[in-house]
Write a structure and sequence with these properties.
Helix content: under 10%
Structural class: mainly beta
Strand content: over 45%
Number of strands: 11
Order of helices and strands: EEEEEEEEEEE
Number of helices: 0
Distance between the termini: 40 Å
Radius of gyration: 14 Å
Length: about 130
C-alpha cells in the first residue's frame, strides 16, 4: 500500500522560501518495474484543489502551473524516496494546504489534474503573510 507523508509547511513572510517534502512508502521511486507520477497540489478552503507541479519517471521534464513557474521547483531524491517542492519568492496567494499525490503503474500521466492521482497525503499548511 502506497503512503505519502508531507512535511515542511509553516509560516513565512512574502518573498521567503520553504521546502516541502513528500516521503513515499510502499513503493520505491527508482523501481523500474512500474512508472510513477508525483504531483503537488494546493487547496484553499472553499476553492477547488489546484495542481502546482508534477514529475514522472516516464517523462523527462517536470511540469508546472503558470502561477508558480519560475518560483517553484519539484525534484526527486531516490536515496530518501522523497519528492521535494522548493518554493521561492513566496506570495500571500500561495497560502494553502499543500498535498502530494501519486500515480503508480505501467502507464502514468504527467498531469496537474487531481482526478488522475490515486494516492494522497494528508497535507501540510503553508501560510505566507507579513
Amino acid at each position: 500500500q502506497v503512503q505519502l507523508v508531507e512535511s515542511g509547511g509553516g509560516s513565512v513572510q512574502p518573498g521567503g522560501s520553504l521546502r516541502l517534502s513528500c516521503t513515499v512508502s510502499g513503493f520505491t521511486l527508482d523501481d523500474s518495474s512500474d512508472y510513477y507520477a508525483i504531483g503537488w497540489f494546493r487547496q484553499v478552503p472553499g476553492k477547488e484543489r489546484e495542481g502546482v507541479a508534477c514529475i514522472s519517471s516516464s517523462d523527462g521534464a517536470p511540469f508546472y502551473a503558470d502561477s508558480v513557474n519560475g518560483r517553484f521547483t519539484i525534484s526527486v531524491d531516490n536515496a530518501k524516496n522523497t519528492v521535494y517542492l522548493q518554493m521561492n519568492r513566496l506570495k500571500p496567494k500561495d497560502t494553502a494546504i499543500y498535498y502530494c499525490a501519486a500515480q503508480i503503474g505501467p502507464v502514468v500521466l504527467l498531469t496537474l489534474l487531481a482526478d488522475e492521482y490515486d494516492n494522497w497525503g494528508q497535507g501540510t499548511q503553508v501560510t505566507v503573510s507579513s
